[in-house]
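User: Round two. Same drill as before: sequence, then structure, for each protein.

Assistant: Same drill it is. First protein:
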Amino acid sequence: MHQFRLVALLGVSLSALSGQIAHAQTAAPVSVQENEAAPVTDAATVADEGNEIVVTGTRTAGRTRLDSVSPVDVLSGASLQRQGTTELAAALSTVAPSIDFPRPSANDGTDSIRPATLRGLSPDQTLVLINGIRGHSSALLNTNGVVGRGSAAVDLNTIPTVALDRIEVLRDGASAQYGSDAIAGVVNLRLREARSGGGAQVNYGFYDTQVDTARGSRHVTGENAVTVSAWQGLGFGSDGFLTITGEYLKRQPTNRADFDPRVNPTRVTGRYGDPEVEQGTGFLNAGTSLTDTWSVYGWLGYQERDSKSAAFPRVAATTASAAQLAVLARAGYAGGFLPIINTKTRDLNSAIGVRGQVGGFDVDLSGSYGRNRIGFRTLGSANYAFGTATPRDFDDGALTYDQYVVGLDFTRRFDVFQSLNVAFGVEGRREGYKIEAGELASYGTPPEGTVTGIPAGTAVSLVSPGAQGFGGFSLGNEIKRSRRNGSIYADLEAQVTTRLLVGVAGRAEDYSDFGSTATGKLSARYEFADWFALRATASTGFRAPSLQQQYFTQTAQVVQNGVPIETGTFPSVSPVAQALGGLELDAEKSTNLSAGTVIRAGGFDLTVDAYRIHIRNQIGLSENIQASFSPQVAAILAPFNVSAARFFINGLASTTKGIDVVGHYRLRTATAGSFDLTVAGNLNDAKVTRVPVNTAVALSPTPTLFARSRILTLEDGTPQTKVTGTIDWSLDRIGALARVTYYGNVNQPGTVATADVFTGRHAITDLEVRYGEAKGAQIGLGVSNLFDVYPDRIITANNSTGVLGFPYYSPFGFNGRYLYVRAGFNW
């Protein structure tokens, strides 16, 4: 009831305020057929809104955001850059209430490659496009206890905001239009296109915050970040363009760990917060006409990211094993050590295509290739099994994912009804996934007789092998797999009468690994008057199991009585998993229903859209099934020398219901300037309706496959309520922005109810003032989280190590007040 009272309050506020969808929007990107450069606007100006042409969710040319059948947010590049962060995912979550971007810490590689969610669903249930072409996912599979556990999603932060003209967010199921993953919706990143002009910019910011944890307080000033970016538009021929973009980011780590009660005197021993990052990104986007009717286009983007996050500290005073204590003392870690997890990411985005006309049809033939490679290292750590000969730094191996996509699309408008737009096409995709092993010391034990520094009489089996903090991938974990899929679709959109718009779409896909699937979508929009319309959609969707979910393997070994015993994550079709009942993974399926209204009058527009998303056969990562659970499990695992195993399973089901409300009012005055008032909110309620309790093998008693913490993460891991209110004012060369975002309570669940950690309900206030000219110097001064708000701190009962100062499920992070300056020059 609390959420629905907020809906009513939000509606009243919108009507009184007259507010719209978020956040400064720009006109459609320049076509390769046009001669003009992309506009360089005054730094104080907010681009005109209300008549934006969208290309996401419709294949009919000229459709505007408010005329579309499905809800589409159009977010300009300027609105993404006018805030403290230069991370795309963080900036997007600030201006789009339906998008959440938690900042996990102390969770291995997920600290560096953080997933975003749409409408509270899994990160891999949102399709990401670049200029309308499918983007590739990260090689990382999130296997820790975080939001998005078990998913391998697109890393939005591989695309710099300065390279973007705008982003279109389709808040509707769209598998029938775009294929796998579009269960929650679609995020379409539209690259900047320009024949001339350019700009350079430096962003510098630092934290000034009071950190009040459960065991103490401290003031932090510093932990700075600097971003240097530039872009240049170049013209050639009659209409050719080449837009070059570059960005460099250097960010110091943050630390919001609590005081460690295990050491005397108590002090902060952990590092809990954002990782240290050094990152460079370059993008090229180009296009030109070939003939009067044919043109060519393409882009190339590359990023290298070096990220360092921390594992839990190894405190000597609490080390249980005498062998481990000896290693610490003799290897120079007498007081313990803090393992650093170093991920080095190389990401490639590329595409090339031609557009033209054949037989009255607009034709688009494209091919793209994307690749993501993540190399892992553990620094400043130890492998206890190696004794005093342990290395300090370890090469842990690497993960690689790549994707080829070829698409051929046809579109034509016919004079049927008032108009009929017919689109159809085919797409082929090849995906590859590879795991490379690390060095022996990162995961294993030394050769027989080479262990040094372990006290006499201590069995090597008592010393856990592998680098502390993050164990490497072993030779047995190495894998290389690929698959192919082909699809065909048809998409019809008819303006039946002046008032009635109807759409029908269907898609069939065939995968080389799990088989075929088909999806469909019906949509309609009826305009009762120029100022009022209703719209609705009904669709089915699917998400193919990722190669990462099918084949990810990471195990650790302990030698017992001379026999290596494994534990870890296994593919569902591995002999170990099959013995426990593992099966080949199948596609997730969804049924999406939505209904909404569009109201507009003068400078005011309001959209309200309700939705229901039912997902069945959902994939989840099981808990560890341990040999110690029962004699039956022990007997099953014994032939494989495995003590515990987990793997992915189909069978979860969930229903998500919610309402998106977006309102905006633009007020122009002759003397006081322009005012843009925005209120946007998302109310979201997810319930898990089915949980598998058995694998294909009957086990008695039955081990828990999905713990309460996994279920509650799906239900309560993202805010059920998020409301953003923004005032953006501009007058000539000056401007100012004020934004308040309210976040509902989020549960970071524990194994039992008493271990649950709640973020609380909080409002975050951001302010910025700016000055600039369309061509000339520009400067902005701002503060994110003006009032230094934190999520509710973690109580001492749930924080025995003192590392976890605040819940990492927090939808707005836990870093506190951030001050920044942005200076640049446009030409």
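Second protein:
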Amino acid sequence: MKNIKLRNAIQHINKSVLAYGSLGAMALFSLSAATQAQETPGFSSDEQALASQIEEIEVMGIRRSLKRALDVKESSNSIVDAISAEDIGKFPDKNVADSLQRIPGVSVDRGWGEGRDIFVRGTDSALNRTLMNGQNVASAFWWANDNPSRGFNYSMLASELVSGLEVYKSPEADLDEGSIGGAVIVRTRRPLDLDPLTINASVEGLYSELPDEVDPQASGLISWSNESGSFGVLASFASQKRTMRRDGLEAFPTNSLYDVTDQHGNVTNDVYAVWGGGSAIFSQERERETSNLTLQWRPTDQWDIVFNAVQSGMDMDNNNQNYLFLAGGAAVDNNIAVTDPRFIDTSDGKQALVGGTLQNLSGTGAAIEPIYRRGAYVETEVYDIDATFEGNGWQAHMQVGITEASGGSDHDQNYWFEGPTRSVINLGPETVEFSYLDMDATDASALTLKPGNFRDFIRKMEDEETYLQGDLTFDVEWGPVNSFKVGAKYRDHTIENNRTTGRANPDHPRFAELEAITLADVSSSLTPKLHEETASAGSLTQYAWLDEDLARERIDSILEDGVWDYNFDQNAHYNINEEITAVYAKADFETEKMRGNFGLRVVKTDLSSSAYQNGELGTVSTSYTDYLPSLNLVYNLSENINIRAAASKAMARPSFQKLSSNLVVDATNGETATAGNPLLDPFYAKQFEIGAEWYFGDAGILSGTYFYKDMSTYIVDSTQVEVIDGQNVSVTRPFNAEGAKIQGLELQWQQELGMGFGIVANYTFTDGEIAASVGDFELPGNSEDQANASVYYEDSNFSARLSYNYRSESYGDLVSGSQRVIAAYDQWDATFNWNATDNIDVFVTAVNLTNEVIYQTTSDGIPGWGFYENGRRFSAGLRMNF
């Protein structure tokens, strides 16, 4: 078996030398190690001579990074796609998610202008795992509307940390369960893999067009190892500051039904109406710092011990101001007439109000809600020890570590000003228009402070996991089986969510002082001009807004004089613990034409979910065991063509929010409630895929893969009558229902075009279908079409790359009788690099060149959350490598 591998390697080396020699690329040859000088039976003298002299061939630049990624893909026994560290650096990507979108079948949520969640092969972000060096990374979020999920918060992971990325689309038995779309493996750098002394540094200025700000970015890495190569130290640091602004024309659909009365007294029953909508500006000062310390020790040729510590933190104080119209939130809810109402039909056979004049002159017709999130943060830490011992024909491996994350805000405080006026609204798939008949939004005196609507969240989400893994691998000669691996892993994972809520006390003597304040008392200017790309003729693009310094002086000074009442919010609390024990066995096999692996992973999950119900803290526990077989095959049809096939059973656990055991009864009527369900079954999928790969030239590939996933269950919300404290209550909670089927095709093309030019492109078609019994809607998280393409140019002094990313419309939850839809989105990015000296590069990048915006609606055409513009970003800087 080893002879076959070495012969193939020599053939590949011969092709590489010829290909790169014809291109005039740089290559490095060195003498081999003693083990390579040994004669290998079955090889000719010429082959043995070549094998004894060649240790490494390294081609520089973009071609090198593409070649390295293809080498990972070609040599893998599973269906894997990869990105090398250099390619990550040469894209204008600031975090790992932005880099992952270049891989076939992977799309990214860009709601905040930077990748945060990934979607793989039509599956929701919560159904995909991210592992760092094979282990989980704890994750948390800062925003009050974010709930803990199985997905990873990629905004925390700076691209400078990474030596390479691999996306496993077919599982192996020794790889953690929990992914149905794909498992992302993030590889960090190790000192003994680098030159004895390596120093990298970069400085950069980032210009964000929308806020019109320039922010500094810097990173550095130093790696040292001793002369014997037995000990090394690596330290890296990345600091990124980004001033964000996001303009949003928003509307907030709900599932509430209203009776709408027109000016003639005609009543239309059971109508959906947006709670309200507005013209919003979000601003954030985002400061991310990521540090990494790695110690690597090889006391003998047999031992390799690595300690890895990663800390990543992001401070992100932010504010959101939204000048609102209020439909269901004020007018319709109070049975106020709507003049000339306009309705559209919804998918469930009802109607939705999308136009008309809201006659709420004496009530609340307009409002502004400034929200300031102070002390907003996210922190993630990983401490890991990875030890490997190479015996004679066997290998032992052990890994132990802990990962922790926390996120939230010290204060998530909203102010609220409102005023009486009639409002005219006009809503459509790309239209949010509203105006006020009795006031001017630029007149700050038109709105008065309403402290009864104040609230302040002090919020903390915590995530922690400890893990211990050990396995043994044996070289065997069991027919075609040449390697056998057995192992076990234990994980103890706890996630907890807490919130303290503050309200202004109306009985406090100073409460009346607050009611006398108008927006004019705390406003010093108008907003900048908003919604350059999304506004239509009737959109609100400028208004009076709150000045934070004036608000602290006039409002907060009163609130802090004892007006705030803070109480622990039992409804927001939950604590979920999972103890997961896995054992696995995997066999690698190889014949002259075929190789691969097969194995079985057995996983036992013990879950306990604690939350408050009716003021009492209770715990619900459950346990289940899963058997997850996997098979991966690679058939060498010819020297350059591989046929791949894989079959497996995969599982993914439900999100933590859905597993919460809390139950919240609606305080207004006592007849309805929402709840979680800790007894939910996991998602299961029987998977199959087959594909072909043709490797041509040197960094060229043409491939296609068909994949099919049969998901046995899907989770939907259902309302049922339950008896609570002796009363019948309609409780909405998640339940398992029939599953979904996903099938698709991935195509990949990568080729040098000559004269320094090349192309990298891929396309993925995904067809997702929910079981008929679940409902008539589209598979959440799925985009039918995804495409990525990059054209690059490179010579000895310059390189440039123009990249395009496209994702067709994708789907979310059910609302207002239909389904939330994110419209198709595409984006152009570019980067240019000049090798000023052997050690210094000058680079320029551009992100979102055409200033694309994100449109969110329902499938029936009601704006759903909003239309968001993040603006273009440009940067310039230096990279230094020594």
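The longest strand covers residues 727-754.

User: Perfect.
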